[in-house]
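Before the break, one more example. Copy the sequence into your notebook; we will annotate it together after we see the structure.
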Amino acid sequence: MAKKFTCPSWLDPEAKKEWRRIIKILEDEKRDFTTKDIKALEAYCDSYATWKSNKQIILEEGYTFKTPSGYIQQRPEVSICNKAQQE
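Here is what the structure looks like once it is written out:
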């Protein structure tokens, strides 16, 4: 990995942390990583941060909640978490 890549400023702190973790792995393993791979890494880090923050809410609040009318409903974070994990 000859070229040094700068972490995008628009990533949130958790995504930046994951960016640094992955870049370190790529550097340590001397992986061939080019500018064409940057967008994929950006998307992965962003999705990872989204997944992690929503997973934390699920762990704290549970997978469901009771609506004001008394129905048990899946938390929106479950769908967000699943979508982020798929991405």
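Residues 4 and 17 are 16 Å apart (CA to CA). The helical segments are 13-28, 38-61, 76-86. Try to locate both features in your own notes.
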